[in-house]
Known about the structure:
The complex is a heterotrimer. Chain A has helices at about 1-30, 50-60, 65-95, 95-110, 115-130, 135-140, 145-160, 165-170, 175-190, 190-205, 210-215, 225-230, 240-270; strands spanning about 230-235, 235. Chain A is built from 13 helices and two strands, in the order ααααααααααααββα. By secondary structure, chain A is mostly helical. Chain A has one domain: MetI-like fold (Orthogonal Bundle), CATH 1.10.3720.10. In chain B, about 45% of the residues lie in helices and about 15% in strands. Chain B has two domains: about 35-160 and about 320-370, Periplasmic binding protein-like II (D-Maltodextrin-Binding Protein, domain 2, 3-Layer(aba) Sandwich), CATH 3.40.190.10; about 165-305 and about 405-450, Periplasmic binding protein-like II (D-Maltodextrin-Binding Protein, domain 2), CATH 3.40.190. By secondary structure, chain B is α/β, with parallel strands linked by helices. Helix content of chain C is about 75%, strand content about 0%. The longest helix of chain C has about 30 residues, at about 75-105. Chain C is flat, with a radius of gyration of 25 Å. Chains in contact: A-B, A-C, B-C. At the A-C interface, α1, α3, α4, α5 and α7 of A face α1, α2, α4, α5 and α6 of C.
Amino acid sequence: MALRRNVFTYGVAIPFAIVLAFPFVWMFITSLKPEAQVYDPTKTWRFHPTLTSYGYLFHHTDYVRWLENSFFVGLLVVLITLVVALPAGYALARLAGGVGRSLGVGIFLTYLVPPTLLFLPLSRVVAQYLHLSDRLWSLIVVYPSFTIPFAIWLLMGFFKTIPQELEDAALVDGCSRIGSLLRVVFPISIPGILTVVIFTFSLVINEFVYAITFISSASNRTLPVGVPTDLIRGDLFNWPGIMGAILIPSIPLALIYNAFLNRFIAGFTGGAFR
Amino acid sequence: MSGDEKTLSRRDLLKQGAAGAAALGAAGAGAPFAFAGPMKFKNKQLKGDLSIIQWVHFVPAYDDWFDNTWCKQWGEKNDVQVKVEHINNTLLDTRAAAEVAAQQGHDLFMNLHPMAAYEDQVINHASIVKEIESKVGKYSQLGKLSTYNPKTKKYFAVSDNYVPDPVIWRRDLWNGIGEAPYTWDHVRKAAPKLKGIGHPIGIGQSQELDSNMALLAFMMCFGSFVQNEHNAPILNTKKTVNAVKFMADIYNRGETADIFGWNPASNNNFLYSGQASMILNAISATRTPEDQHLPFADDLAIWPIPIGPHGRFGLEHVMGCYNIWKFAQNKDAASQFVVDLCVNYKDATNASKLYNFPSFPGAYPFKQIRKTAAADTHKPRGKYTVLTTIAEKFTHNIGFPGTYNAAMDEVFTKYLIPAMFAQVSQGKLSAADSVKATNSQVKDIYRKWKAAGKI
Amino acid sequence: MAAARGSRRGRLRYVAERRGFLAALLISPAVLFIAALVGIPFGLAIYLAFTNAGAGSLTGKWVGLANFRRILHDPIFRGSLWHTAEMTLISQAIVIVCAGLIAHALVHKFRGRWFLRFLILLPWAAPISLTVIGFLWFYDPQASIWNWFLIKLHIVDPFNKPNWLGTPRAAMASIITVQAWRTIPFATVIFLAGISSIPQEVDDASAIDGATGIKKFWYVSLPLQLPIALVAILFGIIFTATDMVVPYILTNGGPFNSTQMITTYSFATGINAGNIGEGAAISLFLLPVLAIVAIGMLVFARRAEVT
């Protein structure tokens, strides 16, 4: 029994891990190549590795700035998303009944409008009504529009797994409804909150269309915009630099997501209440 | 400038604010329009602001000159704080649309193709053209036909430069088989031999800029045009069908299937890998091998486009155009900037290592450019002088013999021409059918813009 | 109880106790946000589809259904409908199968699980707009490492290398691959949550009943995981169908429009060619289709819900 499970486990996990991660391995190798040898078919695997491209990234481009900007925007958007989505998720899961269910469906509908279309009217909103052109705050204000719906859905799921008895017990003990929210429900949903953090952050760091539209100055660019701009000059791609630029944020992010994953899963299993 | 107490203290506040914003660091949350660099003049108060957006030039030296020498000196002279933003050229269209939608953006917007579709959003640049002409002589035909709308009698952009599009070929390989790309017939004959020695030709048929340019120019050499001199579509002709068949022939004999999946960098990379025996590209494709000391850098020859049955017709590879939005904040400074840049274009051309040619040729006469090119030390010496011949005689505007307009722009940006060729080369459609189908799409587009009163 | 108190504070607390009011209060920030930043621009976009707005302008002359009529005649547009469906359905089918397998493999602790999980999460952790540029390199006609492997394994002739971005079938396959690649970790994580949410009692009960392995999966696990799995699939479909970055960067709709998607064509028409009204009309075609899919799946999910 255990052997069968192990065969299945390793037989599935290892090949998939190799296939999914191989592009990154190749990116890493390319990032170590000197630019002139990138196209040399005789130097595919055997070449003199060099850190020049990383040096270029850090010293001749605003790469560090873009990383900072992306993380800054990401963290603030996560905060806003949590503040808005937590109460909404709770309300839809517990309080709203039938209306809540329909609203829950409505959440998905907001994703049906792709940014390929929305960015134009939004650029007018950002420029004329919010006066946030070329400021990172424009992104911080706009991004929650697509992170909040997803966060609400996630949190709805979490709150549904928290037994009603817990809250009722708190109410019986004299807590107001809001009090029970704050003192009982939210602490238990830490795993859910962490999950929202991961998913929201990943949505933010992937976003490209709004970032290119609302931000002008080089120093305000986020990562997805800065890389194609500075590492692709007209028709020349700086492949080693680009590969390095991709790897630097991806590896830490994957490590962090991995670390949070257990708690996320624990949340869905209802924590200590199994 | 000085004197007014109130103004001075407001400027002081602004300066402090700017310093404070800089101190905030990466957040950029404080500065309303974060400047790309430190204030250029600590001692002098500058009256106005000028914001410019343009592409990241493939020649870093040009951007260096533009940002740090030209704009700095111009700003000093005209009491204007110039702020330049560079973005990847593929993103310029998106940004233009966003700025128009927002009715707010840069004072001076540069793109690599004249933005004919935005005619209603920009000022009439006639006064700028006139002023430049009064100082250095006439606007080139190429420039005028690219940026002027004869229907509305409006200059919807001003071109400061264009880039000649030569053919770049490996002299060693071609001479080895006893050939040279003098005419397209020569190319067709040499193609199988070159492919046979492992060095195919590389003329793209993909949905990207280089393919568009190469194929449109190729068509013209065969007497096939998208529109006539009255800007009416005339694509479906026997000559077009012949051109498509001819290119399919070249593909089948001497090219590989690579050419259908290219981006603008691909034909360059094909050349840099040592494989390609011929590509059509600007001289970025020869400068990089020189810079990277590739073994065949000295074997790369530069020639005008081969001759076809109709003659030798080339296009510009890209054309730098500036336009000024109607909602720009500092139109005066923007206009003056363009005037001064075009008048002094000699420095720009040299800074770009002869990539940019002035659209107002009086600023840097061909004879002088030729002299500079002759001084280029790369081997074989004098190889860049042919650029002036190409620029003078064999470079036409997109939309030749008509003018560049919104309909032509749409045909161009939708890559209808590369699709027309590729379908036939890949055997999906016969030449006649492909041309017919493309023609109906082209006519549709022209109908639409004619209804809008733009052609 | 609180109603008995006459004080103002008491009345306030009473109001806060009422479910409906509290619910509305808690939901309103979210609704306001979405209405302002999604609803208004969306309404504007619908308006634009009925005008001949051009070149970034947000106003235009009303032309009724002319834009829609024109694009329905456009062979490229009709192709884009088909390609979008193809890309979405095939890539998500792959995602479901792979994510399902991986999730089951990763459920129980084993040596090396942390490391393997890290590798599996990488495609999702990396910003897609950058990794897709990385795939441009991966599929480069000259230097594709994928071709290198195929040649070394003698599957492919070195003089006849497949051009992954240059021939229609191969280009579509490449796009599908990238979409699947980046979605698998996302779906795996959600499936994992679904599996883990099955209470232990169910596990024990099925063991007692003698249901193991595939039988257990089909009759017990699958139905219990279905609600969560369905929503993960739904998000996968929506994120893929509305995605522009992957097809735009990999092929830009080529070769000759054989991988043109609704999103890329809408962008090319509206932004590059300066025809906003038409671009908006194209984009709107995504909406009814996705709405039907979404509602259909959610209804199915609710019916399949096991409490």
